[in-house]
Give the backbone structure.
Amino acid sequence: MKNLPFFSRPRLILFVFFCSFVTAGVSAVPFAEKPPENESVQKLFARTLHLEPEVQGKPLPTNDWWTTLLANDGFPGRLYAYPFTVSANAQGVQIWYPLEWNQNGTEMDAGEPLVIEPIDPTPDSDPVEQILFDFEKDWASIGWTLEGNAFGDVPMTHGQHGSRGIVGKRYAASFYGQDGGLGKATSPEFVIEKDYLHFKVGGGSEKEILGVHLLIDSQSVYQEVGKKSNDLEWRTWDLRRYRGKKAKVQLVDESKGGWGFISADHFVFSKLSTTPKSGPFSHASTLNWGDWHVSMRLHLSKSKKADVTF
């Protein structure tokens, strides 16, 4: 994982291709005054474009791939810059280098991406959101203590269990012993300094023997469980009554039956009750494009952004 510092208008050139080609004469072609009336074309033209002011009004490519790039909500889909594929999400720029075909032979197996994350050299002294735990390192490095065999030596990866909705590459899950694994994972102690704690949860739903707990004075004051799903969903605890108190997060798995595991990821302190971003960037917009390049702008705030060209 590599870090990308912020500047007022940074520009990262990921790939440059030098190409030579010969153009052929093209005869005059009649153009329609308006697009066809069929549903798929109208749906394409109805999308909201996410363009920077300096390119608004510029003639746009209108095939589905290009329009999806220019109008996709939040962040673009995966783009090809052969032999690489490139995308972005709230965490940063993602680069894949496919080496072989999938088992069906229908497309290249992308594997895990290289993620280029930003570092803000001038962070806010009192940010709206603050990551508490994200499970991207081994348990010892993040200061958690383990009991039993359910949580393994390191947090789990997507490839080990196939869970969706995780943030980053790893998350906490008591599935190392599959449904029969038992144990607890307890965080280091922290002080509650913001009004809300947001996090993601998946797994089984039996509150008597599974759960994500908030412990204050060794007592559980909040608990969340999954919905019998591998996929993780956002949950929120209102901490206003506990401001200033010391607390711990504890994951508990005492179940040996079906859906006998608990998963959690990305604990974020926040001043707001609304679901937090999954990373530093809020969205991407299109800065420029041409026959051989695309530039997108990743937004951190009104004054901080990163420009990426590939």
Residues 213 and 223 are 4 Å apart (CA to CA). Residues 64-71 form the longest helix (8 residues).
